[in-house]
Amino acid sequence: MTEHIKIESKDHVLTLTFARPDKKNAITNAMYGALADAIIAAETDAATRVIVLRGEGDMFTAGNDVGEFAMMATDAFNGERHVSRFVEAIARSTKPLVAAVQGRAVGIGTTMLLHCDFVVLAEDAQLSTPFVNLALVPEAASTLLMPLRVGYARAYEMFALGEAMDARAALQLGVANRVVPLSRLHAETASVAARLAKLPSGSLAATKRLMRNAEVLTAQISAESECFAARLKTAEAREAFSAFAEKRPPEFTKLAS
Ligand code: COA
Q1: In terms of Cα–Cα distance, which of 9, 52, 1, 2 is closest to 26?
Q2: 136 CA closest ligand 1 atom index
Q3: Most CB atoms closer than 10 Å: which of 23, 163, 176, 253?
Q4: Which secondary-structure segment (H or E) carries 239?
């Protein structure tokens, strides 16, 4: 349990809110655990017909907690990495997943959107996947889904250079369904969720299963996770995490890859 994920259920819509605004909703292992538990439980809960993901404060989420990356890179961590359960849960969920995104969506904040069925962005949304800046590799099947969605050239630029995609580009490239003024973000999301909640849920689930091959996605997730875990322990990643903690730019050029 963590106070940093708020879970509310109303009118068949389960809303999961990243609630750690003082740390820009950076997601901790405990938060991934709570998200995974809620999404897995929703799969067999007839009362939940739609799941909404959103964040408190001025941004959706700054991605994985970088301090925890550093901690998990040490041998001191021997617990379960709940991020894997969360990613697998969103890849396998047959309920409609709807996201409401304001401000930045960094790293997994963006890659989770590729598993959402309906993405509403505020005009100030900025999607970025700076995994290489942290000497890591992209996750959540994004190495498959991002090039499919936006083309190889744009995906490579986002992954390698960490370039952000703004709301207009995300709409144009098919990463998002709607862009609305920030003041209308949650009302628009609630209206979409309410419409989806009234539709025949069996038909929606079957449509989603036909559109998304969960086995292909989870195989890609496994390949990425293995590479990610190995990268966490590299000198390059240690330098990236130290630089983040010390609020300075990283220096990679003197390190072996
Ligand atoms: N992990 C841990 N803490 C984070 C974090 C993250 N991913 N992102 C932000 N924070 C913390 C900051 O360290 C800071 O903590 P402090 O107040 O104790 O110093 C606090 O949240 C506010 O962040 P700050 O950087 O001051 O906000 P900002 O608006 O200037 O910048 C970001 C926001 C998202 C651009 C910037 O915080 C950032 O680049 N974060 C890292 C993103 C990242 O690399 N995520 C992983 C991707 S794989």
Answers
A1: 2
A2: 48
A3: 176
A4: helix 235-245
The model's pTM: 0.97
| Contacts of residue 58, Cβ cutoff 8 Å, sequence gap at least 6 | 21, 24, 102, 103
Domain that residue 94 falls in = 5-181
- Whether residue 203 is contained in a domain is answered as no
Residue 223 maps to a domain = no
pLDDT at 141: 98
Q: Do 104 and 128 meet the contact criterion of CB atoms below 8 Å apart?
A: yes
Quickly list H helices, 44-98: 66-72, 82-92
Mean pLDDT on 45-55? 98
16 Cα: distance to centroid of ligand 1 (angstroms): 21
CATH code assigned at 129: 3.90.226.10
Determine the residue of 20, 22, 24, 60 to mutate for testing ligand 1's pocket, defined as the one with the most ligand atoms within 8 A of the Cβ atom.
24
pLDDT of res. 80: 86
Residue whose structure tokens are 């499919």: 148
Strand order in the sheet with 13-18: 5-10, 13-18, 50-55, 97-101, 118-122, 178-180
H or E segment to which residue 53 belongs:
strand 50-55
Domain presence at residue 200 = no
Tokens of 65: 């907690």
Query: What is the 205 CA–ligand 1 centroid distance (Å)?
Result: 36
pLDDT tens digits, residue range 189-231? 999 999 999 999 999 999 999 999 999 999 999 999 999 999 9
